[in-house]
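I had to read the description of the data format several times before I understood it. The format is easy to grasp once an entry is in front of the reader. For illustration, here is how one protein appears when written out as sequence plus structure tokens:
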Amino acid sequence: MTLYDRILVPTDGSAEGERAVAHALDLAAVHGAAVHAIHVVDSARYAGMPMEASWEGVGELLRGDADEAVDAVEGLAAGTDVDVETAVVEGSPSREIVRYAEGNDCDLVVMGTHGRGGIDRLLLGSVAEKVVRGSAVPVLTVRIDGDDPPEPATAESAGEETTPGEASTDDAESEATGRT
């Protein structure tokens, strides 16, 4: 029995967000899981726009960005054996992520967090925090501010073993950062 069969990765299409996507793809490769990539178009955020702005034009632009975001996940998975399903939905990001995870029997949600604190978090809230608090599905948050996102492991490198005395990339990275 595998631990994960379906891993949900919400994506905003940002370069920083690729860190969480790469992490989800690596986990999926190890567990033989499928990845569900979702982008939530937060239409409520644009509800206060002046009437001169055409909602259809803005809506098309937002859906185009959403399609690019989920297509990027498929592109990152292309060098792996991970199956990817994509979805674009509209609504409140945290609510829709939780709804999708629970409605599609996902075993894990892997999502990025910008690491905002203080007044920014108080005023803006955190989608990741709301998902963690509201989801019955376990949530793994990946801090995405900082270094360039790692590339997901390819099918060949995912199965590589190290010889005795040889540190794997993960071991070297853990030693460099002081984390295990």
Q: What stands out?
A: Residues 55-77 form the longest helix (23 residues).
